[in-house]
């Protein structure tokens, strides 16, 4: 009998669930077998909803990054450069939105159990994220824009290496080619910046800035892989709530230590408050959507998608800062999108949503939006592969 899937189908904290684990496991196995046994072509994944959703969500994320960078430029223009304090509001908003929902879903008792058992893991995730943001901002202060953007490639390298070694992800040659094509598109973008003379000139301390950028990109890469591992096992709202809680603590301490002098010369008025609000809103949307693309795709796809942020930055810059679009920009954007298309020409209907570290039947994963486990359960019900009446599947967010 196929039974309703609850949001707590994977429980590591000793609480009782209503899910029939044996029935669910059999349904997932049947659904995965049917999905993977389909007669697919090299382009099959490109015809799925998931592929276009990944492209769409990726571009929304790129726009959010562009928006946050634009607001940061506005703040920098009035000498309000307070990197740690500026990001603090985003973590506060994540906490305000997702912590009450997490407690509502789990209850206080289970939430405390999660804190005691996995709190240190969430703290590490938040620390990596906060410091990745901080050192990347510092890199832009000391080095030029071209150098800082080139260092962003290092985060993709870190993601691929860590996914291969720690998460047992095995990339096919087509996927490697896709990533290289995307990087080639970014290279064209940077070349056009250099031709236009918009690479920022010479930084005030290039070596120091490049080291900060390299450290920030490394921390970003590690945190992206770590978050992909987390959201494949736990509900997204839980991950985001703890990211917010510990982010407030870490960022608050860092701001009180390193941003005190910056407060003295900063400008404070209604316009600055509006820019802070816009920056926080962009980052909140960004953080809320990242777990979705990590489930449907991977940390590598997430990082590659963000390469298009530079393109959108120029588009917005033409309206806001008077930039001009070089003829190489559209070529760069098309190359990056083509690279994403090539990445998925692997003849599988599940793409990167099936995570190797969750087991063959994804038994260690959460049944949530975008996961291969939920897709398998839905397929099993749709095809009547469970031998029961079925019910309406409800995936954990």
Describe the structure.
Helix content is 70%, strand content 0%. Helix 2 packs across helix 13 (309-320), helix 4 runs antiparallel to helix 8 (206-231) and helix 6 (153-165) packs across helix 8. It has a domain at 69-291. The chain is globular, with a radius of gyration of 22 Å. With 397 residues, the protein is an all-alpha fold. It contains 15 helices and no strands. Mean pLDDT is 82; it is low at 1-10, 15-20 and 388-394. Keywords: Membrane, Transmembrane, Transmembrane helix, Transport. InterPro entries: EmrE-like, SLC35_F1/F2/F6, SLC35F_Transporter. The chain crosses the membrane at residues 42-68, 80-101, 122-140, 146-166, 173-191, 211-227, 239-257, 272-294, 301-321, 327-346.
Could you tell me the number of beta strands? 0
Radius of gyration: 22 Å
- H/E order of the elements? HHHHHHHHHHHHHHH
What's the overall average pLDDT, rounded? 82
User: Which secondary-structure class do the elements indicate?
Assistant: mainly alpha
Helix content: 55-70%
Shape: globular
Assess the beta-strand content as a share of residues: under 5%
């Amino acid at each position: 009998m196929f039974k309703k899937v609850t949001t707590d189908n994977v429980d590591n904290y000793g609480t009782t669930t209503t899910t029939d684990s044996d029935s669910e496991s059999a349904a997932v196995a049947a659904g995965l077998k049917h999905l993977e046994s389909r007669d697919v072509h090299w382009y099959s994944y490109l015809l799925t909803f998931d592929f276009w959703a990944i492209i769409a969500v990726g571009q929304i994320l790129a726009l959010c990054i562009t928006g946050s960078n634009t607001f940061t430029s506005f703040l920098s223009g009035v000498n309000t450069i307070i990197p740690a304090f500026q990001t603090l509001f985003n973590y506060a908003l994540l906490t305000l939105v997702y912590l009450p929902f997490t407690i509502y879903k789990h209850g206080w008792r289970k939430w405390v159990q999660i804190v005691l058992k996995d709190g240190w893991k969430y703290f590490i995730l938040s620390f990596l994220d906060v410091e990745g943001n901080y050192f990347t901002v510092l890199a832009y202060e000391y080095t030029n824009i071209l150098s800082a953007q080139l260092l962003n490639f290092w985060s993709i390298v870190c993601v691929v290496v860590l996914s291969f070694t720690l998460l047992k992800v095995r990339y096919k040659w087509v996927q490697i080619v896709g990533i290289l094509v995307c990087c080639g598109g970014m290279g064209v973008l940077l070349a056009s910046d250099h031709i236009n003379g918009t690479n920022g000139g010479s930084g005030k301390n290039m070596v120091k800035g490049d080291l900060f950028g390299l450290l920030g990109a490394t921390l970003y890469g590690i945190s992206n892989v770590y978050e992909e591992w987390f959201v494949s096992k736990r509900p997204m709202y839980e991950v985001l709530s703890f990211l917010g809680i510990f982010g407030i603590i870490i960022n608050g301490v860092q701001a009180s230590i390193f941003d005190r002098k910056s407060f003295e010369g900063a400008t404070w008025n209604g316009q600055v408050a509006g820019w802070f609000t816009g920056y926080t809103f962009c980052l909140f949307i960004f953080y809320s959507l990242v777990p979705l693309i990590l489930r449907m795709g991977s940390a590598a796809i997430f990082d590659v998608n963000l390469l298009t942020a530079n393109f959108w930055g120029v588009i917005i810059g033409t309206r806001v800062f008077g930039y001009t679009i070089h003829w190489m920009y559209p070529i760069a954007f098309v190359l990056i999108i083509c690279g994403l298309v090539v990445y998925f020409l692997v003849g599988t209907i599940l793409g990167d949503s099936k995570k190797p570290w969750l087991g063959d039947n994804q038994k260690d994963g959460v049944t949530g939006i975008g996961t291969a486990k939920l897709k398998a359960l839905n397929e099993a019900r749709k095809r009547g592969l469970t031998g029961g009446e079925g019910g309406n599947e409800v995936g954990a967010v």
